[in-house]
Amino acid sequence: VSFCTLQSTDLNAPTLTQQIVDRVSSFDFGAKEDIVAVTIIYPIDFLPAA
């Protein structure tokens, strides 16, 4: 992951949201030679516990 940003949230927890962004930013999908980088948007939705 070379870029990660929070687009919106209804969580009232700025520290938690920053921790999530930091964790996702640390994901490593294993860059490969001769493979062009692509941009993919992954929405991550957190739902209340049942």
Q: Based on Cα principal axes, name the global outline.
A: elongated
- Poorly predicted regions are none
For the largest beta-sheet, the strand count, sense and barrel status come to: none
What is the helix fraction of residues, given as a range?
Answer: 10-25%
Helical segment tally? 1
Write the element-wise H/E pattern from the N-terminal end onward.
H
Rg from alpha-carbon coordinates: 14 Å
Number of distinct beta strands = 0
Distance between the termini: 31 Å
**Average pLDDT score:** 89
How much strand? Answer: under 5%
**Derived structural class:** mainly alpha
Properties at a glance:
50 residues; elongated
Structure at a glance:
The protein has one helix and no strands.
Question: Explain this structure to me?
Answer:
The protein has one helix and no strands. The longest helix has 12 residues, at 14-25. It has one helix at residues 14-25. The protein is an all-alpha fold and 50 residues long.
Task: Give the SSE map.
Layout: H1 14-25
